[in-house]
Design a protein that fits this description.
The chain is of the alpha+beta class and 265 residues long. The protein has ten helices and eight strands. The chain folds into three domains: 4-138 and 255-261, no CATH class; 142-183, no CATH class; 190-248, Orthogonal Bundle (Arc Repressor Mutant, subunit A), CATH 1.10.10.60. It starts with a strand and ends in a 17-residue tail after the last helix.
Length: 265
């Protein structure tokens, strides 16, 4: 990856909803950039040679995607935590594997936001704009708290629900309404994301891990389970994934949202 990528943490008010604000500037262009499912929804502002190119809502991904990123393309994104974009835009749960212009959801507000982002000289100032714009439609509730714990693979789903005072059926319905997928499926994506994050520590020419031990450490039943999940969410085996990412030099970028430029992040 030849682009410059950075993340900015949200303020305390939005920390339960927003994982980070992120930006990327593509200096030379990246062909066939890989973007993988990460359980998140993004608001994505794009530029071309520093001129506004679009403002969109990128839905949760369930399959891998590859996109050619042209030279001079810039990105600024709001990465929502799993299931949390619906707190601001209920329509987000209906956009799995789709991208929608934000204007179709927020109308004139989206046009104003796009103009303000276009005039901002830095990602930090863009993040400050979004901090002021994002206002949840309802106060936090028990379903949101349960969703916030979904990435903790040590807690069974029925316990997540009961700890939040919900029935399993209520929790499944709430997750589908807010994330567009059931909690078991969303947890599979989050487990896969954790596995790819662990693999990001592997560098070119480094020995690959003991895959059976790696699978167990990431919460898979066995190596075969790990391989099946990678085929579904990455389109290849874990070993081939490590090799391809090392060759591309972008082990840190599987979740950099240009992808969501497919979703264009």
């Amino acid at each position: 990856m030849n682009g410059f990528y950075q993340e900015i943490q949200p303020g305390r008010r939005l920390a339960r909803y927003v994982e980070c604000y992120w930006s990327r500037e593509e200096e030379q262009g990246t062909p066939n950039h890989s973007v993988l499912p990460d359980g998140c929804v993004d608001i994505l502002f794009t530029t071309q040679n520093r001129e506004p190119a679009g403002l969109a809502l990128v839905g949760l991904m369930t399959t891998p995607s590859a996109v050619d990123i042209p030279r001079g393309r810039g990105f600024f994104g709001v990465r929502f935590r799993p299931g949390m974009a619906a707190a601001f835009m209920p329509e987000a749960a209906q956009l799995n594997d789709r991208t929608e212009p934000l204007e179709t959801i927020w109308g004139k507000t989206a046009r104003v936001i796009s103009g303000r982002l276009a005039e901002s000289p830095s990602p930090k100032l863009m993040a400050e704009i979004m901090e002021g714009v994002l206002r949840p439609l309802d106060p936090p509730d028990s379903a949101g708290r349960a969703l916030g714990r979904l990435a903790d693979m040590t807690v069974p789903l029925n316990c997540l629900a009961s700890d939040a005072g919900l029935s399993e059926r209520h929790f499944r319905r709430a997750c589908a309404e807010r994330a567009g997928v059931p909690p078991k499926y969303l947890r599979r994506i989050l487990r896969f994301r954790r596995a790819t994050d662990r693999l990001s520590a592997i560098r070119r020419n480094a020995a690959q891990p003991d895959w059976a031990q790696f699978a167990a450490a990431c919460g898979y039943y066995d190596q075969a389970h790990l391989i099946r999940e990678f085929h579904e969410f990455a389109g290849c085996t874990p070993g081939r994934f490590v090799q391809s990412q090392a060759r591309a030099g972008n082990l840190q970028s599987e979740h950099d949202e240009p992808a969501k430029t497919r979703k264009s992040d």
